[in-house]
Amino acid sequence: MELTEALAKLAELEKKLYAYQAADSALYLDGTTVAPRDTAEGRGVALGVLAGERHKLFSAPETGELLDFLWERRGELDQLRRRQVEELRRSYAQLTRIPAEEYMEYAMLTNEADDLWHRAKEKSDFELFRPVLEKLVAFNIKFAGYYDASKAPYDALLNEYERGVDMAYLDSFFATLRQRIVPLLHAVMAKEPPDDSFLRRRYPLEAQRRFSDYLMEVLELDRNHCAIGETEHPYTLEFNNKDVRITTNYNENDVGFSMYSVIHEGGHAKYELDICDEVQYTCLSGGVSMGVHESQSRFYENLIGRSLPFIRAIFPKMKEFFPEQLAGVTAEQFYRAVNKVQPSLVRTEADELTYCLHIMVRYEIEKQLIGGTLEVKDVPETWNRLYQEYLGVDVPDDKRGCLQDSHWSGGAFGYFPSYALGSAYGAQMLKNMEAETDVWGPVSRGDLSVVSGWLREKVHKFGGLLEPADVVKNACGQFDPTVFADYLEKKYSALYGL
Ligand code: ZN
């Protein structure tokens, strides 16, 4: 085989893999937005076939031979092709360890699980979800062995979401955060809470939808390339750097929920839209890791979106959308309200300070589930006990307890820690950004172009061209979780007059 011929085959393989991914995403988008309720079965059949075909293509011996051939000639490849081959070889090695039937069975199982989880959550009935969760856990333990049998199963899964991250790393990371956050939380809770009752007035959905449009404009999201929809659980879905979808969920009596969902998902979308053209339709398109992705969404949501300069900038316009609801409220009062610290039950509604404690609960449970020291049937009890221990709250039902998140129904064990890592990465990025340029002058005028430009150059544009750890290094320098702890301490000490 000639090198040019092999490169043409590589391009063809990548395009086909992209097409399978696009079909899968389109079905998911449909299923979560406009599809009628009892229609999951048919999509499940299609998804199962697609997953099987993709698996067949990707795990074919010819694919392995092609990748080996290109890897032997890697000295002659440019950086883009070399990275592509490296990544594809890694995925190939993993995939070929999973038998095709198991892979297909798993794809259908996650589809079924999503449906069951919705129903179980609606009824707050863990028993309904338990059998399928048991199967998902068993599959993941088995898959972890396929991924890397030399590692503890949970370490192998963590590595899938954030390469290089393991339990030892996270145990120390979370211990550092706990040591700093818990005393800070106690000090904050001893103070008078700010009034946030105006956030819970009635905010008509139509006005909230127009407000979302405005926020997308402030975030510089081009509506010709990024659409917004509505789902139970907000998410971002990317087809390529010219077609990204975000979703939100409106709550008539909580204006902050959708507001910060749009800004959060908008941060994910900005990352995807900024990734360079060269890597599109290859395995290097898309954000490099979950942790880096969350660093971007949480950067916009918290570091920018919950900052005083940003709120001052958008508040006059906000008052136009909600004149009665915000009558007599100042930007400073709004700032204090959206930063109110309140240990709570639901992760997606958590404030910036207690958020990581929610993640620690999930981390502990996953670690034990995958490690085999906790049975699925004992998840609710453990969940409730840890919520009491970490956050001091009593969990009244599973709907607001262990059934609240969709991650496990999607088979994502090892994903949650990315949220906390992302928050910590973001704080360090901000520190570096501030050292290099005037961040807050433009933000206080509602101009996010300086922030966007910095993140585009340091993080976004590479897509998967660099390793996750190198992207983090590029934007953060040496990772140090105390920077995040310092940031929290400074912000909340000022807010609460500690
Ligand atoms: Zn996110």
Gist of the model:
This protein has helices spanning 3-32, 40-59, 61-72, 79-95, 100-123, 126-147, 153-161, 167-189, 205-218, 255-274, 290-304, 308-321, 331-338, 355-371, 379-391, 417-436, 440-444, 449-458, 468-476, 481-496, and strands at residues 226-230, 236-240, 243-248. With 498 residues, it is mainly α. A 3-stranded mixed beta sheet has the order 1-3-2, with helices on both faces.
- Distinct small-molecule ligands in the complex: zinc ion
Helix content: 55-70%
Unreliable stretches, pLDDT < 50, 5 or more residues? Answer: none
Largest sheet: 3 strands, mixed
Structural class: mainly alpha
Tell me the span between the first and last alpha carbons: 70 Å
* Secondary-structure element string: HHHHHHHHHEEEHHHHHHHHHHH
What proportion of the residues form beta strands (DSSP E)? under 5%
What coarse outline follows from CA principal-axis ratios? Answer: globular
Rounded Rg: 23 Å
Number of strands: 3
Overview of the structural elements:
It contains 20 helices and 3 strands. With 498 residues, it is mainly alpha-helical. The protein has a 3-stranded mixed beta sheet, with helices on both faces. Strand 2 and strand 3 (243-248) form a beta hairpin. The model has no long low-confidence stretch (mean pLDDT 95).
